[in-house]
Structure formats: C-alpha cells, structure tokens
Amino acid sequence: LCDFLESKFFTDSHDTIKTLGDYAGSLSRLISSDPHGKMGEYLFDKHTL
C-alpha cells in the first residue's frame, strides 16, 4: 500500500508543487521588472491561465 501511494500520489504532488513554484517565480520576475506591477500580473494571467 505504501509503495502504491508513494508511486502514484507523491509524484503527482511533486509535479504540481514544482509547477506552482515555477509560476510564482515567473510572476515575481514579471512584477519586479515592471514598474507598474499590474501589467506583469495581466501578462502572467494571459499566458498561463
């Protein structure tokens, strides 16, 4: 049972957490490079969602 849970769910969880971390990094770079901030957030939403 433990092997099944580790192989099935932990891999999916890891991939999801990695993707969310990448999105957070991209968003912070966009906002910090744009003096207005909101344009970076808009572009992030447009290209990822």
UniProtKB/TrEMBL annotation:
It comes from the Eukaryota. This is Arginine kinase. It comes from Cirrhinus mrigala.
